[in-house]
Amino acid sequence: MDPTSACNLKCVGCWAADYGNNMNMDFETLDNIIEQGKALGTYMYIYSGGEPLVRKSDIIKLCEKHNDCMFLAFTNATLIDESFADEMLRIKNFIPAISVEGFENETDVRRGKGTYNRAINAMEILKNKKLPFGISCCYTRQNTEIIGSEQYFDDMIAKGAKFAWFFTYIPVGTDAAEELIATADQREYMYNQVRKFRSSKPIFTMDFWNDGEYVNGCIAGGKCYLHINANGDIEPCAFIHYSDSNIHEKTLLEAYKSPLFMQYRKNQPFNENHLRPCPLLDNPEKLENIVIASAAKSTDMKHPEDVHNLCKKCKRTSENWAVTAERLWKDNH
Questions:
Q1: What is the DSSP string of 109-147?
Q2: For the whole model, what pTM was predicted?
Q3: For residues 2-23, b (16+ Cβ closer than 10 Å) or e, as one string?
């Protein structure tokens, strides 16, 4: 869930960068979501944004109140300082996933000059206090070979990272940079590198698209997770900006039963080849059908995006990846 749409950076290709600081879920709303989730058996909560640590005092209060839960935040880490790290050490149930795009050049090109060094400084603070943290990496056409390199893995391990979450770039938003979408060859490179290093490096890795085989396809739409944006819109996935429910109007359970989420349930898995798990990037026709059938609305705050236009941007990428994915699936299953 997104505590806020506010962010202190403006990264290339990030939809949140366009939203400004106008949307926030207050402490009571966030607390209520967690209470509802716990009643349904959910004990892990992930903050995204915006930059969630803009709300770090509320995040600490929520960790304190719900000490039976684990919390993680995708963060640019520029707001992590000694005092916040001390709070993390005190509460013991909050772990950051620090966003880096590679080394200094790759990170600063997308996130702004000096961002990499500020993130590395945060890693140093956390490592010195023996606090667990990981990294979150978006691989694009420009940085895949860096992100997947042994040199990069070894450097992040040396800096103290205990896990790495990999995402491939998704062209969400009317101003999305389509030229950043990774090629089929680059996605295959990440598939091979992540698997190779799992058995040889002391870091836990997960690639949210290429690891669909371990969770029987897509995990979104309430199957294993959902996303609530800072406006309260309940979305099936952080990358799928369509909704027919809002947390200010419906309970979580009501949202799970909504037409949009039931369409997800009905259609999962979206492909029997679990290397093609996504209803947008890998099977765009599936997302088109789901949004139309459920009458879900775009939640993009600046430029509502027609689902046909969104899926059209992914069509060629999905067709190219289908050829590679079929070969990999047959070779390994």
A1: HHH-TTHHHHHHHHHHHHHHTT---EEEEEE-TTTHHHH
A2: 0.94
A3: bbbbbbebebebbbbbebeeeb
